[in-house]
Amino acid sequence: MDEARKLKIAAAAEALTYVRNGMRLGIGTGSTAEEFVRLLAEEVKDGLEIVGVPTSERTAALCRELGVPLTTLDETPHLDLTIDGADEVDASLRLIKGGGGALLREKIVAAASDSMIVIADQSKVVDPLGRFPLPIEVNQFGLGATLRAIEAAAAKCGLAGPLNLRQKDGAPFVTDGGHYIVDASFGRIPDPETLSNALFAIPGVVEHGLFIGLAQAAIIAGTDGIRTMKRP
Ligand SMILES: O=C(CO)[C@H](O)[C@H](O)COP(=O)(O)O
C-alpha cells in the first residue's frame, strides 16, 4: 500500500474513535472519506449501531455496497457528527472543499451536524488558503454572466485568476444537484470571509468551497504520526 493511502487510513481510524453507538453521522466524500466508510463498515459488521447521511451519490453507493445504514436529512434533520475530507485546511480550521464536486451537499450536511471533524494528510494544511483552486458551484443558467460577476467579486477582494469550468469526459462536470463547478485559481486568499460574502451575493452562485466556522477539529496524519488541530 502506498504511503499516501496509509496516511488517509490513519486519519480515518482516528476519526472512528469519536463515533459512538447510536450516532447520526454525516459521511463525507473523497478518497479519505472513503477510507473512513470502509473502517466504519467493519465496525457496523461488529455491531456498531449508527445511521449515516452520505454527502454524495458516490459515497451513498459505497455505503450501500458495504452495508452502512443510511438515512436522509428529511428523515433525520439533525446529525451528531460529520466526518469529511478537505482539499485545504488552515490554522483557523477554515477549509477549501469541493475537489470531488460534492461541496453543496457536504456543506448542507456539515451545517446540520453538531460538529464536523476533518480528516486529511499533512499536505492539506496550508497558510493561507488558496493553493488549491476554489470550487464554486454555479447554476447552469446564465453561466457567462455568473463568470463575469465572479471575476468582479474577486477583483473587489483584490483577487484575480483563471476561472475554469470543470470538465469530465469531454463535457462540463455536473454535480449531484445538477449544477456546474467553476474552479477559481485566485492564489492566496488572505480574507476568506470577505470572499465568501462577495460570492454569496451573486445570484448564479449556488455554493462555494470555502467552509468557514464549520469544522471543530481536523485530524491530520503525517509520517511522524497523528495530530488533532482544534478551532482556536
Ligand atoms: O471536498 C471533497 C469532495 O467534494 C473532498 O473531501 C476533498 O476533495 C478531499 O478529497 P480527498 O480525500 O480525495 O483528497
TrEMBL record:
GO molecular function: ribose-5-phosphate isomerase activity
Pfam families: Rib_5-P_isom_A
Gene3D superfamilies for the chain: 3.30.70.260, 3.40.50.1360
Keywords tagged on the record: Isomerase
Enzyme Commission designation: 5.3.1.6
Active site positions, chain numbering: E106
Swiss-Prot/TrEMBL catalytic activity: aldehydo-D-ribose 5-phosphate = D-ribulose 5-phosphate
UniProt enzyme class: isomerase
InterPro entries per UniProt: NagB/RpiA_transferase-like, Ribose-5P_isomerase, Ribose5P_isomerase_typA_subgr, Ribose5P_isomerase_type_A
The keyword Isomerase appears for this protein: yes
Function: Catalyzes the reversible conversion of ribose-5-phosphate to ribulose 5-phosphate.
UniProt name for this protein: Ribose-5-phosphate isomerase A
